[in-house]
Design brief:
Keywords: Monooxygenase, Oxidoreductase
Protein name: Antibiotic biosynthesis monooxygenase
Radius of gyration: 14 Å
CATH topology: Alpha-Beta Plaits
Largest sheet: 4 strands, antiparallel
GO molecular function: monooxygenase activity
Pfam family, one: ABM
Order of helices and strands: EHEEHHE
Distance between the termini: 17 Å
Shape: globular
Strand order of the largest sheet: 2-3-1-4
Strand content: 25-35%
InterPro entries: ABM_dom (IPR007138), Dimeric_a/b-barrel (IPR011008)
CATH architecture: 2-Layer Sandwich
Low-confidence stretches: none
Helix content: 25-40%
Number of helices: 3
Length: about 110
């Protein structure tokens, strides 16, 4: 489970996918399989979560990595490159962006 703290010395990545209601479930299932079978087993992986908006037009993936380099290495693997190409066929676009947690509120 993701833990969001400013004191965490980890890399946060939020990837948003633009989808249609007709492809949302297909992409969501593909992302779940990728996370369970491959991504979560990569060096430096900490945690991840998937979110879907009510209209089923956006999926957000929140992931945490020990280091920026761990996330980048995972993206460069042949398996992830193949999976990313498949994701691209199920959505209009997607973009992973690295973030730093600057504040949290309870």
């Amino acid at each position: 489970m993701p833990t969001i703290k400013t004191s965490n010395d980890i890399q946060t990545v939020i990837t948003t996918f633009e989808v249609t209601p007709g492809t949302c479930q297909d992409l969501l299932e593909a992302l779940q399989v990728a996370l369970e079978e491959f991504i979560s087993k990569q060096p430096g992986f900490v945690s991840a979560g998937l979110h879907v908006n009510d209209a089923q037009t956006r999926i957000a993936n929140y992931s945490q990595w020990q280091r920026r380099e761990d996330f980048m290495a995972m993206l460069r693997t042949p398996e992830m490159r193949e999976r990313s190409r498949a994701f691209n066929t199920m959505c209009r676009s997607f973009e992973p962006v690295m973030y730093e947690v600057t504040a949290t509120f309870d």
